[in-house]
Amino acid sequence: MTAWTPLHLRDVTLPNRVWLSPMCQYSADGDGVPTDWHLAHYGARAAGGVGMVMVECTAVAPDMRTTARDLGLWNEQQVAGHRRLVEVIATVGSVPAVQLGVAGRKSSHGVPWDNAGTRSAVPPREGGWQPLAPSAVPFAGLAVPREMSTTDGTRLLEDLERAARGAHRAGYRLLELHGANGYLFHEFLSPLANRRTDGWGGDLQDRMRFPLEMVRALRSGWPEDKPLVVRLPAEDLLEGGLTTDDMTTVATRLGTSGVDMVDLSSGALVPESLRLTAPLHNARYGPLFRTAGMRTAASGLVFEAAHLDEAVPGLVDAVFVGRALLRDPYWALRARGSDPIESWPRQYHRAF
Q1: Which residues contact 315 (CB under 8 A, 6 or more apart)?
Q2: Under a CB-based contact definition with an 8 Å cutoff, are residues 244 and 208 in contact?
Q3: Short-list 207, 96, 204, 213, CA closest to 160
């Protein structure tokens, strides 16, 4: 088995195990609908040989966006825009997938290239909104979030189910929940962000209660024949935070709640978290999570063909490639190294 062999998840067959990582483009229109930029960007990567195109983090509700330029999946106009995007991805030969986002306290900030970017809060008077989080603990210089009530929780579960149904109607074949990098799912799990004293806080079993409800809401809106993935922090990389033992326990519970694969990440809950900079740093957690009975994938500094050989199958079942595919939409075809006439789109054969 290599990175170029198929992978079967429920009734979906991925033609290979090299996948486009969901990377925000911050280019939605004013209503959260995909634009021509998304068609060009994702279409090129789909033609570039990846087995799956994971569309960027797409918000389930207006107050769960990171920025005002995020994609959304909470109304029919957005579903129609995603359907057009799905058709482009599938037509040129890749499996269309989408990551759903619930930003929590990392919400209502600027886009990376404006002012102070993702560390710059956008207040309501300037088009921002009030973030919601497990506790009223801000991330860096962003706005202090409002602690979620049980009413907020009920509404969010409805948002998640609706977004999953919208993703299915748009034609996506695989769904991922962004549960890492300091977003709401991660915030509930970690004692560094969750200071609650009710049934949603306390020890790990209680802190994971609402995240598991989030997964069940998604699964109820997502067909049984389609796979569900969670991007999961392998650890917080900070004293007092989540450990790998904590997170393998969480992964086991996710498996019994209808999750088919965990997509491993690490750190990023707070600015002080250690940043891992070695190639395949997240993939190296893979063997620990296989003991929890989960299929595994990971992103994180995959930029050479040799990284694919090291990662699959020894560390993980699949890899998400990010920055390398931003630089070169045909990186996967180059990394594969096969006869271009056999692997590249026929429209490009005369280039070889």
Answers
A1: 280, 283, 284, 286, 287, 296, 298
A2: no
A3: 213
> What is the average pLDDT value for the chain, to the nearest integer?
95
- For residue 190, the surrounding DSSP H or E stretch is none
Domain residue limits, the chain? 7-351
The pLDDT, as a whole number, for residue 1 is: 72
Q: What is the pTM of this model?
A: 0.96
Tokens 């999953």 sit on residue: 164
- Residues 6 or more apart whose CB falls under 8 angstroms from that of 197 comprise none
Longest dimension (CA), the chain: 65
Nearest to 272 by CA among 229, 315, 240, 305: 240
Exposure string over 138-170, b if 16+ CB within 10 A, otherwise e: ebeebbebebbeeeebeebbebbbbbbbbbbeb
CATH architecture of 7-351: Alpha-Beta Barrel (3.20)
172 counts as catalytic? no
Burial bucket for residue 263 (CB in 10 Å: 0-12, 13-18, 19+): buried
pLDDT per residue over 48-57, tens digit each? Answer: 999 999 999 9
Measured CA distances, 30 to 71, 72, 139, 162 (Å): 9, 10, 25, 21
The pLDDT-based confidence of 21 (bands split at 50, 70, 90) is very high
- On whether the CB atoms of residues 193 and 240 are closer than 8 A, the answer is no
Bridge-based pairing of strands 295-298 and 318-321 is parallel
How many CB atoms within 10 Å of residue 130? 13
Instruction: Find the catalytic residue in 26, 42, 183, 285.
Output: 183
Residues 6+ apart with CB under 8 A from 294: 251, 252, 254, 255, 259, 261, 262
- Cα separation, 14 vs 335, in Å, equals 18
